[in-house]
Write a structure and sequence with these properties.
single chain; about 120 residues; alpha+beta; two-stranded parallel sheet; 5 helices; about 55% helix; elongated
Length: about 120
Amino acid sequence: MFFIASKVLFFLISPLSWIITLLIFAVFSRKDKLKKYALWASCLLLLIFTNPMLSNYAMVQWEYAATPKDQLPYVETAVVLGGMLETGKEPTDQYHFNGSADRINEALLLYKEGIVQRLILSG
């Protein structure tokens, strides 16, 4: 039941499904006024949800501000999340790091500076 509800909820909150629904409604609507509103609404939604300037602004507002290293408190243990290795690349006897490898570098810098006493690596 939860699986079906999650798929239906994803479909209902997806902007693309609303845009397509409004366009289909505009094509099959018999009233010119409703057709006009549906076309304008679909164009407005398309402009809002495909505009990288608006999405980048929303993401910047959502993020926390970074704390400078000199203001970080001393902690005994820090957890470093995994997901920084890529598989399936040649040669197979070496590690291949992806763009998330910077998190291990920052954790090692914090360890060397004495801000963190121990590191726990996951994944």
